[in-house]
């Protein structure tokens, strides 16, 4: 579903070069929930932006649903839903329904398709009670639901979330977790970045652990637990880093 092949990304900030990703390769299967783990600056956002066709690799290739992110970005954009950071992109003065209608129009959904889709999402996410209220007065959890609904209004197969629960309280984080379960049941492929190990343990089938732009581990969580003789992801992550030469120095 998502193939990342030998990707390197170098940013130039005035005269300084920053290598955000170094020879990263991995793949994600259809219907999988993948957690992208790593400290600040590990390269998570850079990688997600690349999958979302918003950034081009300096070297290497990324393909999504069989399409190349550089050569066929439009094919990919139709098939992905993205939600980056705390940016909900919602209009406070519009109702939840109006917000969703607005984004549905941007994706070219017909009036009828839009209505059906909004009804489905409202039911799935439990938003029916406040669909016709202005978003300005919503709690963070309610906003989170509308923001996710907005990101997937066009019913994409692949959904990318960058740090979806950073800055959210426990209730709103739980909203996100429930929604991921729902979307997984619908057969969606989901990739989200996080530095919260518990969240990844709860939700993900597999993980990609990143450190300073390199991929430290990628694979099935259950196999990782078996191989490491532990189910403590935090411990596993730290011990993988310690085993790398560069971490101590
Ligand atoms: N537009 C940019 N210009 C310069 N450096 C950048 C840019 N975007 C990211 N970086 C650098 O790339 C590295 C990885 O960043 P990022 O992907 O945001 O990490 P993460 O999301 O894991 O915190 C960091 O060192 C960051 O400073
Ligand atoms: Mg980031």
From TrEMBL:
Keywords: ATP-binding, Nucleotide-binding. It comes from the Bacteria. This is ATP-binding cassette domain-containing protein. It comes from Metabacillus hrfriensis.
């Amino acid at each position: 579903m998502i193939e990342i092949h030998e990707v390197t990304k170098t940013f130039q900030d005035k005269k300084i070069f920053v290598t955000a990703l170094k020879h990263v390769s991995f793949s994600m299967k259809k219907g999988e929930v993948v957690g992208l783990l790593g400290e600040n600056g590990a390269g998570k956002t850079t990688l997600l932006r690349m999958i979302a066709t918003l950034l081009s690799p300096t070297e290497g290739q990324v393909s999504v649903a069989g399409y190349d992110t550089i050569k066929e970005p439009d094919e990919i954009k139709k098939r992905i839903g993205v939600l980056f950071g705390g940016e909900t992109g919602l209009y406070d003065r519009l109702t939840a329904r109006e917000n969703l209608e607005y984004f549905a129009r941007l994706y070219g959904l017909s009036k009828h398709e839009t209505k059906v889709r909004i009804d489905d999402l409202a039911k799935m996410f439990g938003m029916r009670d406040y669909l016709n209220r202005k978003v300005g007065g919503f709690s963070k959890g309610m906003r989170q639901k509308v923001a996710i609904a907005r990101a997937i209004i066009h019913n994409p197969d692949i959904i990318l979330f960058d740090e979806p629960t950073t800055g959210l309280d426990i209730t709103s984080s739980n909203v996100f977790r429930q929604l991921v379960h729902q979307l997984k049941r619908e057969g969606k492929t989901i990739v989200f970045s996080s530095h919260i190990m518990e969240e990844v343990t709860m939700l993900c089938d597999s993980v990609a652990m990143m450190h300073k732009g390199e991929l430290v581990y990628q694979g099935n969580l259950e196999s990782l637990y078996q191989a490491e003789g532990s189910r403590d992801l935090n411990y596993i992550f730290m011990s993988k880093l310690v085993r790398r030469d560069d971490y101590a120095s």
